[in-house]
Amino acid sequence: MRVFRKFQDITEDCRGGVVVLGNFDGIHRGHQAVIGAAAEDARRHGVPLVVLTFEPHPRSFFAPHDPPFRLTPFRSKAFLLEALGVDALVVLTFDKAMSHLPAPDFIQQALLDSLAPCQITVGFDFRYGHRRAGDVEMLQAAGKTAGVAVNVVQPVGSADGETYSSTRIREHLVGGKPGHAAALLGRPFEIEGVVQPGDQRGRTIGFPTANLEMGEYLHPALGVYAVRAGLGEDAVEWFDGVANLGNRPTVDGTRLLFEIHLFKFDRDIYGEHLRAALIEFIRPEHKFDGLDALKDQIAKDCAAAKRILRTRAAGAS
Fold first, then answer.
1. Which of 168, 146, 147 is nearest to 157 (CA)?
2. What is the pTM of this model?
3. Residue 41 dihedral angles phi and psi, to the nearest 5°
4. What would the DSSP string read from start to end of 252-281?
5. Which sign does the torsion angle of CA 195, 75, 61, 221 carry?
6. Tens-place pLDDT, residues 81-106
7. Fewer CB in 10 Å around end: N or C, the chain?
8. Nearest Cα to 95, choosing from 2, 24, 5?
9. Can you name the residues that pair with 212 across neighbouring β-strands?
10. What backbone phi and psi angles, to 5 degrees, belong to 289?
11. DSSP per residue over 183-199, as a string?
C-alpha cells in the first residue's frame, strides 16, 4: 500500500480510482462495509482503491486536552486498511487551515483536482468542510456536476440491531465489555507498541510483565483482562496471558501502565513489538494489603484467564 501525505506526491497510477473518505477510527464492521463496497467497484472498473483520511483525528485537533480516545492510532489503522486491499492511503493533515476549508473547496481541491476519482464512496453520515457544513447530498451534487459517481453506503448493524459505530465500541470498552466491542469491531480490540522497561516488581513476585505505554489509545475499564498477545511484526508469535491496566495502587503507582504477563514465557523482549488483544474483563483494579495479597490475587487472575482462554479456543474450533 502506498502512503501519501502531500497531494503533489500522488503518482499518476494512484489517480482515477475509487476514493473512500472517512476517519475510520477502529476500522470496525461498518467501516469494512464502506471500504468493501468501494473495493468491489474498484475491481469492477480495474482502478486503484484509494482511502483519504485525516491525521490527527479532527477530534484531537478540536479538543487536544480531552482524554485519549483512539481505537486505532495511525500505524494500526494503516495496517488494517492495507489488509482490506487498499492500494493507496492519502493522509491529510488536519490543522487550522484544513478546519477552515469550506466544504465546496474541500470537494474540489482534496478530491476532484488531486485524485481525479472515477467514483467517490462514503458512509451515510460523512461530514466535511468548515463547521462540518458538507454532507453527502452536497457531495453527490458536486459529483454529478463533475461527472463523478458518488456511492453512499447506508448504515449496517449486528444481528441484534446494534449499529456499528466507533462511539458505541468506546462505550463498551470503557464499560468493561471487550467482547461486545469485539463483536462490533469484527476482531478483539488490541493495544500495541514497543515493550518498555518497568520497575521489575512483577518479576520479584513471580509474575514478570511486558509493559506498554497507552499513548493515544482509549483507556478501557481499569482492571485485569484475559489477553492474547502477539510478539513481533512479521512472523508473529501468539501467547496467552493476563494483563493489568491501571495505576498499581498497591505499590503506590503514579502513572497508568498496561502490564502483560505471558504464560509459559521466559524471554527478554524489551524493545520488541507486542500487540495484546483484550479477550475478557476479569475484575476491576483494586488496592491490596501488601505484596503477598497481591501475589495471591494475581495467581487467581492467571487461573481465571486460562479458563477463559481455553473456553474461547474451544469455541473457536
1. 168
2. 0.91
3. -65, -40
4. T--S-EEEEEETT-----TTSEEEEEEEEE
5. negative
6. 999 999 999 999 999 999 999 999 99
7. C
8. 5
9. 258
10. -85, 70
11. HHHTS--EEEEE-B---
- Please, which pLDDT band fits residue 49 given cuts at 50, 70 and 90? very high
Which domains does the chain show, CATH number per domain?
Answer: 2-153 (3.40.50.620), 176-316 (2.40.30.30)
Unique residue bearing C-alpha cell 475510520? 24
Residue 131 to residue 98: CA distance in whole angstroms: 11
The average confidence (pLDDT) of the chain is: 91
Q: How would residue 287 be classed by pLDDT, with cut points 50, 70 and 90?
A: confident
Query: Strands 223-231 and 237-246: what pairing?
Result: antiparallel
Residue 118 grid cell: 472515477
- Grid coordinates given for 189: 480490540
Task: Note the helical H segments in the chain.
Answer: 29-45, 58-62, 74-83, 96-99, 103-106, 114-115, 136-146, 166-174, 178-185, 201-204, 291-316
All three cell numbers of 85, joined, read: 486491499
Of how many residues is the chain composed? 317
Please name the amino acid found at residue 79: F
